[in-house]
């Protein structure tokens, strides 16, 4: 991933700039060689994107992604930059990664944890809401009651059922030992995360399994209530019981949740967790971190871009919140117009109970306090064109090939039309890849149109001679490719051995 001869020193400089938040240094290095965005360290295979995401440097994260950094790149432990951002609660970085359509369902190599597990174990409710944004549809007002209207002919009822099934499957995805995100949030007593996960269809009866390498002192077959009893948070136990958790569920050790509370010294939970308890459970409203219009804003931001500069046109409407950027979307219902950046910030920072303004998950309009559940794109919002990046470091255009000037390459429509570098056509550049460190051999040109023409005069060969020559070349290539395949087929190394020292090695690089 970019560890090539001549790129190591400048790559380490970019890593230091990403870790320290030096935006000027990062811009200078990437202007000289955009390939450095794909650099990775030799120990933990952490890319500059991992360092910037873990430290919360959102501007550097956006800069790296604009220069072609892979949003789904993994380190030695199989962790992505999204996992690092969720671990430390940098929700703005998570938002930027989602705009570049990072894969939220990927799990690490060590214990199968997703970004949702990393956010839940650290208690970052905003990161949880962002991670599940693509699974929660933003629907207009008339579609809220689609679940009760099973006779609809437009298929909305079936679609909502499918979306809820995908959301439930993702939220209840188990890591090593059957531990879900709800187990992790319950163990550490993060009430906001538990409330949000339960509103997102988390299974309160999910149990851990016997198989796994994780250290489990509670025992297999434990529910989130067992973990909450071990954590000792009274409010967390109350909401789990209010949402259907059982006081009489036994794990493989024969322990009830009240037994776990006694073993861990949580005596204040015994009156609540006793099997014959008559404790009155309070009524818990929906989570304040639910945000129905979030997906609609994300889709508009992916299409139009996040940073829309103020237009000089006098007829253009300026956002009434920031007074800087032009309006690019409007609230469904009240019709007030905002810019994309303000709408995203509003969806992720509003903690006002939604019952006061509208249905659960709605956010109040900053101008009229109307409950917003969806945003629509304005027809006047322009899409910024991508800039073609032609500088690829060691990869230079082949000057030996004759290209037909009349032959045009097919037009490719970019998926994200703003703040994203378009891919370079193969007709412009040769697909020359950087050689692995420490080899200093620069590979020969491997253009798709055939071998590069030679400048030396060659005699005309007969058909038999050319046939024997092709066979000899193919045999030599087979001999050269055989050891190469044997050296590179070691991906099972990441899956076969699991050790906490690996994760410590990757994290020590980032926190150095």
UniProtKB/TrEMBL annotation:
Protein name, per record: RING-type E3 ubiquitin transferase
SUPFAM superfamilies xrefs: Ankyrin repeat, RING/U-box
Catalyses which reaction(s): S-ubiquitinyl-[E2 ubiquitin-conjugating enzyme]-L-cysteine + [acceptor protein]-L-lysine = [E2 ubiquitin-conjugating enzyme]-L-cysteine + N(6)-ubiquitinyl-[acceptor protein]-L-lysine
Domain RING-type: 319-369
Keywords: ANK repeat, Metal-binding, Repeat, Transferase, Ubl conjugation pathway, Zinc, Zinc-finger
Keyword Zinc annotated: yes
EC number, UniProt record: 2.3.2.27
A Pfam family assignment: Ank_2
InterPro entries linked: Ankyrin_rpt, Ankyrin_rpt-contain_sf, RING_XB3-like, Znf_RING, Znf_RING/FYVE/PHD, Znf_RING_CS
One MF term in the entry's GO annotations: zinc ion binding
Presence of the UniProt keyword Cell cycle in the record: no
PANTHER family, per database record: ANK_REP_REGION DOMAIN-CONTAINING PROTEIN-RELATED, PALMITOYLTRANSFERASE HIP14
């Amino acid at each position: 991933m970019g560890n090539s001869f001549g790129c190591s020193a400048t790559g380490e400089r970019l890593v230091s700039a990403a870790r320290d938040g030096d935006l000027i240094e990062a811009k200078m290095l990437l202007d000289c060689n955009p390939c450095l965005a794909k650099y990775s360290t030799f120990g933990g295979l952490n890319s500059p994107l991992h360092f910037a995401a873990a430290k919360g440097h959102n501007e550097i994260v956006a800069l790296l992604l604009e220069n072609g950094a892979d949003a789904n790149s993994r380190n030695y432990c199989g962790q992505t930059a999204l996992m690092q951002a969720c671990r430390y609660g940098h929700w703005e970085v998570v938002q930027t990664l989602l705009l570049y359509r990072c894969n939220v369902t990927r799990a690490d190599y060590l214990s199968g944890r997703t970004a949702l597990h990393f956010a839940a174990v650290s208690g970052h409710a905003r990161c949880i809401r962002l991670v599940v944004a693509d699974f929660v549809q933003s629907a207009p007002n008339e579609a809220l009651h689609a679940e009760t209207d099973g006779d609809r002919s437009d298929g909305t009822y079936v679609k909502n059922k499918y979306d809820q099934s995908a959301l439930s499957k993702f939220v209840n995805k188990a890591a090593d030992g059957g531990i879900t995100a709800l187990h992790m949030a319950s163990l550490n007593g993060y009430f906001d995360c538990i409330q949000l996960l339960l509103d997102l269809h988390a299974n309160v009866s999910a149990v851990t399994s016997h198989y796994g390498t994780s250290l489990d002192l509670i025992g297999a077959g434990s529910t989130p209530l067992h973990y909450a009893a071990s954590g000792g948070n009274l409010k967390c136990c109350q909401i789990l019981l209010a949402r259907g958790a059982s006081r009489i569920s036994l794990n493989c050790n024969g322990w009830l949740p009240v037994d776990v509370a006694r073993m861990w010294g949580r005596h204040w939970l015994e009156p609540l967790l006793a099997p014959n308890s008559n404790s009155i459970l309070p009524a818990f409203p929906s989570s304040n971190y639910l945000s129905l219009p979030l997906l609609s804003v994300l889709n508009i931001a992916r299409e139009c871009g996040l940073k829309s500069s103020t237009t000089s046109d006098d007829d253009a409407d300026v956002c009434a919140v920031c007074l800087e950027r032009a309006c690019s979307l409007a609230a469904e219902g009240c019709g007030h117009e905002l810019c994309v950046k303000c709408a995203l910030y509003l969806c992720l920072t509003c903690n006002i109970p939604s019952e006061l303004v509208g249905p659960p998950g709605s956010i109040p309009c900053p101008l009229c306090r109307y409950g917003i559940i969806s945003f629509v794109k304005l027809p006047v919002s322009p899409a910024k064109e991508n800039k073609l990046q032609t500088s690829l470091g060691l990869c230079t255009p082949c000057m030996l090939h004759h290209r037909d000037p009349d032959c045009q390459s097919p037009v490719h429509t970019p998926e994200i039309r703003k703040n994203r570098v378009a891919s370079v056509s193969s007709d412009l550049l040769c697909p020359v890849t950087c050689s692995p460190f420490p080899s200093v051999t620069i590979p020969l040109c491997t253009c798709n149109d055939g071998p590069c023409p030679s400048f030396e005069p060659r005699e005309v060969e007969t058909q038999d001679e050319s046939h024997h020559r092709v066979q000899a070349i193919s045999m030599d290539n087979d001999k050269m490719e055989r050891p190469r395949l044997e050296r590179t087929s070691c991906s099972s190394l990441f899956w076969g051995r699991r050790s906490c020292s690996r994760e410590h090695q990757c994290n020590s690089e980032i926190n150095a």
